[in-house]
Amino acid sequence: MTTIHLHPSEVLALISPELRALLIKDVRKDWPELTDDLGERGVNQMAAFLATSTQTDEPLTPSLRVDRFWHKFLKRSVPYVAFSRALGVDYIHHVPEDDEEGSDPAAGRAAMAVTTAAVREAGHHVDAEFWPNEGAADCSQCHAGCTDSPVGST
Q1: Dihedral pair phi/psi, residue 110, rounded to 5°
Q2: Rg over CA atoms, the chain
């Protein structure tokens, strides 16, 4: 398949209101204080991250908050595969790093900076509440191994 470069609004439209509501409900099971607004924004950040990851050969890493939405989306495999295929790829794989030696905070911060720069370059909005290098979110264990964020676990 050939990667399809969609306008950011087209990427967001690939996730129906019904699927958005289900994903927010799914994430809320682990994050009970998640508001509807923050949930919508989380779905948007996840979609932007996933779309951007199909447009680069450079490994990107989600923040913990974006990763929460991604994990729930992966479990809804039929719409997840449809989303991936709409972006021109068979499947967007989730590849966590199995780092036996612990995290490297500097590498985690660098990975977040690369990721948010790529998301912006692809034309998507970067919501600071979902990205630690933007000021407010927790870091992710995926790819970068960053686990020492000073922000709480939400």
Answers
A1: -65, -40
A2: 14
Handedness of CA 26, 92, 118, 7 (dihedral sign): negative
- What average pLDDT does the structure give for the chain? 85
Q: Provide the residue type at 141 as one letter.
A: Q
Q: Are 89 and 3 in contact (CB under 8 A)?
A: yes
Q: What is the pTM of this model?
A: 0.84
Percent of the chain with pLDDT strictly greater than 90: 68
Q: Residues 31-47: pLDDT tens digits?
A: 999 999 999 999 999 99
In degrees and rounded to multiples of 5, residue 84 shows phi and psi of -55, -45
Q: Please name the residues in contact with 121: beta carbons below 8 A apart, sequence gap of 6 or more.
A: 52
